[in-house]
Every structure is written in C-alpha cells, then in structure tokens.
Design brief:
Helices cover about 40% and strands about 20% of the residues. By secondary structure, the protein is of the alpha+beta class. It starts with about 20 loop residues before the first helix and ends in a 7-residue tail after the last helix. Helix 1 packs antiparallel against helix 3, helix 9 runs antiparallel to helix 11 and helix 10 packs antiparallel against helix 11. An eight-stranded antiparallel beta sheet has the order 16-13-15-14-18-19-17-20.
Length: about 625
C-alpha cells in the first residue's frame, strides 16, 4: 500500500514527463504583484496621514499660488509620482524575471498568466489527495538488474529513492520529494508450485493481477483487504490485513522475500534463511530494502457464502464470542447515532447447506430512502442538480452518501440524518450472496477520505476478552458527548496474530487475536476550503480517540494510516509509544547495516524512528 498516483509513463521512457503541473507557479506570481500593490497602498496611506487634504495638494500646482507653496507642492507630487513609478517598475520586473522553462523563453509574458512547472517535475499523490509531493526523480525499472543498478547508483550518490506503490495508503508513507522508485513495470508471476500451493512473483504485481493469474492453477490468496489494487510489495510492507479471527494479516502469507539493499546488494530472506531479518523485514515499511520478489503461501480457490444482516449492541454482546469462533470471516459496521450494527459473515460454501437467497427488498427499494433524503436535501440547501447528476436513480449507495455529505459535511444534524438513512439501507439489504472469495471479500469504501485505523489485543480465540466491544462502546459515547459529525461506517475487523515483529498485530501467543477499528471522514468535494475544514475536524476527532482510548486499550495505528504530529511534544510522545510496542532499536540497527545512507527513507520514517546518524 505504498503511495503512487501519476499518469502512466511509457515503458520506453520511465522517467519522462508525467504532466504539466502549475500549482506552485500559480501561487508565486500573484504574490509578487500583490506585494507591490500593498506597498503602493501603504505609501499613499502615509501621504494621506501626513496631509489631511491630499486632493487640494494635487490641484495646488495648477492654482495661482505663491511660488514657495507651488514649489513645495511640485516636490511632493514628484515624490509620490516617483514612488508610484518605482513600485510599478518593481512589480513588472518581478513578473518578467520569474523563471520560465527553456521552451517558454520566447513567449511574450502577459500579466496574470502563469508559468508552468518544468516538464521533468512529477506530481505524486495518494488516492485521497491528502498527501502530495513534486519530484524530478521517479524511476520505474523493468527488471531486477535495472532495480539493482538504480539502488546502487542512489547509494553511491547518497540520493534518496524511496519505494512507492499503488497510491492507496492514506498517510503518504511512500512519498518523498527527493526521489522515488516504483515497481509497476515489474509485475510478473515467476513461478507457481501447485503441489506446495505457493507462488513467486515480482513485487510490483497488483493483488487483482495475481488473483487472476492464480485462477487457472486453482489457487488464491488466503485473505484480502477491502480493495484489490495494491502492489504485493506494498500491501505486505505496511502490514495490511483482511478479517477473520483465525486468519493472520497478509504479511503472514509471505514465506520468503528478495530484497535489494543499498549496502549488501540483493539478499534473500526466509523462515529458514536469516529468520531474524526475515521477521523484521517482512513488515519493514520499505526501510530495509526494496522488496523485489515475494513467495506467498496460497490456498485452494474457494467460494464463500456472505450473510449480511442488521443487529444491535445487545445482540452483538450475546453472540460475539460464538460469531468470532464459528465464522471464517466476520466484521461489524457500526453506524454512529443509531442502534444499528451491520454484521457481515462469510463462510465456505457447503453442498449440504444451501442458504435461502430470496431477499425481502429489491435494490431500488433499499436505496429509496437515501434517494428521497438526497432530493429533500437538494431542495433544503437550494442546490441545482447538474446535468451529470440529474439521474439520481443511477447512483450507487456510496455515491449518494458522498453527494449528501458534500452538501454540509460538518453539520452534525445533517450527518445524523445520513447515518439514519444508511441504517435503513442496510436493513433493506439483508440477505445472502455467493461468489469466489476474491469477489466476496471486497468492500466499497466510498470516495476520497481521511481514515485512522488502530489495532489492539482482544484476548485469545478460545477466550476473547470482550475489550473489542468495550472499545466501541466508549468510542460511541465519545462521539455523542463531543457532538462529532462522524459518518458511517466505523468498521471493526479481527485477525489472528502475526510473527512479523513490526506488525501492529505482532505477538508470540499462538491463539492471540486482535481487533482493528477504523474511523473515517469523507472528502466529498474538491473545494479547498471545505476540504481543509473537514481535515481539521477529522484530526480533532482522531486526537480525541487517541487521548481518551489508545493507551487504555494498547491500541496502535495501522502503518499506512499513522500520521506524524507537527507538535514536538506530541511527536516525542509518539516515538516513546512506538518504542514500547515495537523493536525500534533492532529496526534502526538493521537500517544502519542495510541502508547506512538512508536512501530508502523519508521524513516520516525519520520522525517515527529517529537515529543519531540520520542523513
């Protein structure tokens, strides 16, 4: 789940221009002219302060006054006229001296036209548009030898070249403006062993590509996250996960890896070969080497029956332990400000137990309440429906939710109505669904968003602690007491433990289980002011959960969703927290040995895991 979002680059020119980006230049030139204008207004204001009747002074040289007074007025007029000419000249000079790219030198500059950024400057951002950098170094090697050459060259030059993946991590963990390497062109299946049920792939292959390639061999992956577009190297390195109390996070499916390291070249690690480094690097955040190849343990391809139904807190408490133990996959979708909990259970399709598929309501009936709310809200907020939005009946539920939230995203009453409509939608969407596991386990997460997901221990499978439900109960109370405009859903999932030392679900207890809880705020608009307000509200929401709940439940954020605080004291507290949970000293020691010049690092890694010899 590294971050990569940029128009495609042809294989023949992987480092060529990606696009024409003008964001920086749009800011600079108006500031220059604006500064000149402010100075001009300031000088004229000073003139009026010194002379309470500036109009009469300007007319005085034309009157038949004495020569002495006329001379003084002429001098003042010439002085202020000189100021004006000087400031105007400064503004024009600033404008014309603004650096343009070489191919634009011949063009005639026009006031308030913006110079483009250089053609070799790439803009790389995550999918939600919450983190973005500009860089001139964005490499896409096509082979292991090209990757090795790029890493060695960067190491020799002490030039950072951070691994970055598909563009799906919310926090920008793979971004740095000094340079990045992306393995999108290294996406081959190298070997499939049907008998051992293993597959060896290049790390740039996407989950969806790999699943399609495994079909003909009757294999698939053990578990999946909500989406399928992550690169394998990225989804493993950040400790991504699916759901199922008997199933570990996805990094546990890795049985060996090939790492390209700056100091030691290409090395292979596995459970048998250098196991200490293997378990440290398996969830290594891209800091111990660029993952070039991965061997994964697969399972037989299988169909699942998904059962979705609506429950409530009391029913959940009665059945929680049983549901965790009996279901291969289970998750809860909590809807704030309602008593509704959506339960999704998935199990292997049995020939002897075929579920009833008849649903009480059709798709249109399930969506009707949401559509009615959207139409009423358009009228309330006096919003005209655009041509591309006129057919409301064609919108999916998540699209309708985004459009509803865009009308007034931080209005608590408005958000509550949307949550209530969502609860009604799920009540009318209860039923069964059958499909292949890679199809069933996906989830429509909605549009662009801020999300914070934490992981904490929830006892063992034979004896759950019930702290997972306690956490949710406190979270819901916090949302109501603080009047947070919290949209739905709050997604709760479970996994078994991971042996990877840097995984948030890392544990030595074989039966330990962990709960993962994600809070969310959508970014349903491209309006910069509105997005800024949503961002501020989300971070306030997140901060409240952090200060009130995280320490109590030993909760730690998902590596792809952790955000580095700007406040120094908060950053120091976060660093200390991470040291209590993870082997930070061992991780930094491995970084010094494998990447002494920190070329694979970025500001986020340096702040989370500071060391005295940081470049």
């Amino acid at each position: 789940m590294y971050i990569y979002h940029t128009p495609s680059v042809p294989k023949s020119n992987p480092n060529g221009p990606v696009g024409n980006f003008t964001k920086v230049s749009r800011m600079l030139r108006p500031l220059s002219l604006g500064r000149s204008a402010r100075l001009l207004r300031s000088s004229l204001h000073s003139a009026r302060t010194l002379n309470p009747s500036p109009t009469s002074d300007l007319l005085r040289p034309l009157s038949f006054s004495s020569s002495s007074s006329g001379g003084a007025s002429d001098a003042e007029l010439r002085k202020y006229a000189g100021y004006f000419v000087l400031l105007l000249g400064c503004g024009v000079a600033t404008y014309y001296s603004f650096p343009l790219p070489p191919d634009a030198k011949h063009k005639k500059a026009q006031i308030f036209r913006y110079a483009p950024l250089p053609d070799d400057l790439h803009t790389v951002s995550n999918w939600s548009g919450t983190h973005e950098v500009h860089t001139r170094v964005f490499l896409q090697p096509e082979s292991l030898s090209e990757l090795e050459a790029a890493i060695q060259d960067a190491h020799n030059k002490r030039q950072r070249i951070r691994p970055v993946g598909s563009g799906l991590s919310p926090n920008g963990i793979g971004l740095t403006r000094t340079g990045m390497v992306n393995l999108a062109l290294m996406d081959k299946v190298l070997e499939v062993d049907r008998q051992a049920k293993t597959v060896r792939v290049q790390a740039g292959i996407r989950v969806s590509q790999l699943v399609d390639a495994l079909k003909e061999n009757g294999l698939t992956l053990q578990n999946f996250a909500s989406i399928r577009e992550q690169q394998i190297g990225g989804i493993v390195q950040v400790g991504a996960h699916g759901t199922g109390a008997r199933l570990p996070p996805i990094d546990e499916q890795v049985i060996s890896m090939k790492l390209v390291t700056p100091a030691k070249g290409t090395i292979e690690v596995s459970r048998e070969k250098d196991p200490d480094l293997f378990y440290l690097a398996r969830c290594g955040l891209g800091g111990l080497g660029v993952v070039a190849e991965v061997t994964l343990q697969c399972v037989e391809r299988h169909e699942l029956v998904e059962h979705t139904f609506v429950s409530n807190v009391n029913e959940i408490k009665k059945n929680h332990k049983k549901w965790l133990a009996d279901n291969k996959h289970v998750k809860y979708l909590w809807i704030p400000y309602t008593d509704t909990v959506v339960v999704v259970q998935c199990n292997l399709l049995s020939k002897w137990k075929t579920p009833k598929f008849k649903s009480k309501y059709g798709k249109d009936e399930a969506l009707q309440h949401v559509r009615d709310l959207y139409r009423d809200s358009l009228e309330k907020y006096r919003v005209e429906v655009g041509k591309d939005e006129s057919d409301i009946d064609q919108l999916s539920f998540t699209e309708l939710r985004d459009k509803l939230l865009a009308l007034d995203p931080l209005n608590q009453d408005h958000v509550i109505k949307i949550n209530q409509a969502e609860a009604e939608y799920w009540r009318k969407s209860e039923g069964y669904r059958i499909g292949w596991s890679d199809e069933i386990l996906g989830f429509d997460c909605g549009g662009q968003q801020w999300v914070s997901e934490i992981c904490f221990p929830a006892g063992t499978l034979p004896k759950p602690s019930m702290k997972d439900l306690d956490y949710i109960e406190e979270l819901m109370q916090l949302i109501q007491s603080e009047k947070i405009p919290a949209p739905a859903p709050i997604e709760q999932r479970w996994t078994a433990r991971s042996k990877s030392l840097m995984s948030p679900a890392s544990s030595s207890g074989q039966d330990d289980i962990f709960s993962w809880v994600g809070i969310i705020m959508y970014l349903p608009t491209m309006d910069a002011r509105q997005r800024k307000e949503i961002t501020e509200e989300f971070f306030s929401y997140r901060h409240l959960t952090q200060t009130r709940l995280w320490d109590e439940y030993s909760a730690y954020e998902h590596w792809a969703k952790i955000e580095v605080p700007k406040d120094k004291d908060e950053l120091a507290a976060l660093q200390e927290r991470l040291r209590r949970r993870f082997p930070v000293d061992a991780y930094n020691k491995a970084r010094r040995e494998l990447d002494p010049n920190k070329i694979l690092s970025n500001n986020m890694l340096e702040k989370l895991f500071p060391s005295s010899d940081t470049v």
